[in-house]
Amino acid sequence: MTLADPLARLLPLADIITPDAADAPAAVRAAISAALHQSAALINTRRRLVVLGSFKTGKSSLVNALLGTQAAAVSTVEPSSAPESFRAEDYVESGLRGPWTIVDTPGLFHQPDLTQRALDELESADLAILLLSADTILSAQERVVGRRIDVTLRGNVIVVVNRMDMVDEAERADVATWAEQALRGHGNALVGSPRIFYTSLAPGGTELGWFVPWLGGILSSGSGDRIVAISRLGRVGAALQRLQSTVAAERAALEQRIELIRVGDERRLDEERARIRNDIAEGRGRVRTYRANLDRRDETFVAEAAADASAMLRAGEMGITVRWDSLLPRYAEGISDAVREAVLGLPITPPAFDLSGWLIHVESLSASHPVADVASALGDLLGQVSGDDSARQRGVAAGRWVSRAVFGSDVEERVLKAVEAAARNRLAELRPDVEEYFDRVDALLREADAYFTDWTPASTERAHLQHMLDALESVGEWAKQLLGEVGAALHDIAPSIG
Ligand SMILES: Nc1nc2c(ncn2[C@@H]2O[C@H](COP(=O)(O)OP(=O)(O)OP(=O)(O)O)[C@@H](O)[C@H]2O)c(=O)[nH]1
Ligand SMILES: [Mg+2]
User: Fold this and answer.
1) Whose CA is closest to 235, among 356, 350, 119, 149?
2) Separation of 126 CA from ligand 2 center, angstroms?
3) Could you tell me if 237 and 322 lie in one domain?
């Protein structure tokens, strides 16, 4: 053992950063506080030796023997009514050195509240002395308490079988055999396992043997430090184990709640996903139908172009220019509008069918009215002859009539046919762009469908529970790490115990 002061080894443990437990359940926060409280106790400079035992076994008498003076009240009848502490250094005759506080406790199993007050002292004890009476058989209650002291203090317990004077000389060996048998497994490598002393504290006939020098020696040596470290680390370890089981229980409960919500969510989600995907499928269907009927839309466009030209003709314009630059954008807008309407309410924003780049390349079609040539020619002629403008007008009218008569054809219809043919050409040129546009819209809808296949919206309650679960996990991790440190420290201090 090369550790100069085992407690120094523990100092960093008390400083280990507390996990962020604000979001952990209350039971976990309480368990963390308890573990931290025990960790903080690691560095207490005072050390506590607690004397415990059944009623009138001679505890106060033993305390006095350790202090070297009658400090504690000893009485045949009056029970010690409260734990009483004595600082070893306050008594010059004390057999103990160092910052040890000796705690005299009320007798166990006499009065329940006093029994509890005595046992409460275990919570801050570094070492216990369990007093038994040589003239009374070790009771079941004493065995239970003995076991509890041993576990709580990691074997830091020394047994004193007092009142040996009450036992016949011939039976003393039997008492020792019996005690050793009954207390097998108690104690540890530092104090002995079990460490039993046989004493007599009768007034005027005190027989303590080596007890006081032995105890004074062990507590002021390096072993004293290690003894203190072991019980304190044991308590930190126990608190951490309690924390771990609290975390495990809370985790299980949380996971169950999350699962319940998840199942409920999953049903709602499935419905929601199915609804959205159904809407997308319907939207796709509408877009596909529109696309399949593009020819009909094209015919409308052709008719619009013809109507436009027709209006120009009826206005008496001699030369007509098909206004592609307004007709085609309207065609494109019609497609964009139809797509937008088809996917209305769906979680996608369709692109507009944009022809601005394309239009620049469209040549405008100029259709010359064949009648115009004849009419204007005749009008010009008559006008020139008469030098009269009204004559020219009449010439134009006559020319029209002549033209109709002479050519015998519906000129307007021919013009419109030419416009329609030009419109169809335009649409044929435009078709690849239109198809590409529809491909793009369809790809977008397919992407949306894929996205909503395993889409999960964040449920706030679930997120909150998940957050708690994360907090629990970090607390559990903290406890595990600290417990590892505690185990390592125990191993350093006393390999057989750690
Ligand atoms: N014969 C005999 N009497 C003892 C011995 N030890 C203590 N006594 C006496 O037993 C009585 C009780 O002793 P205490 O030391 O007060 O016992 P205690 O365990 O502190 O008693 P409580 O605190 O009330 O439980 C006193 O009269 C003591 O003098 C012993 O070894 N032999
Ligand atoms: Mg007493």
Assistant:
1) 149
2) 20
3) no
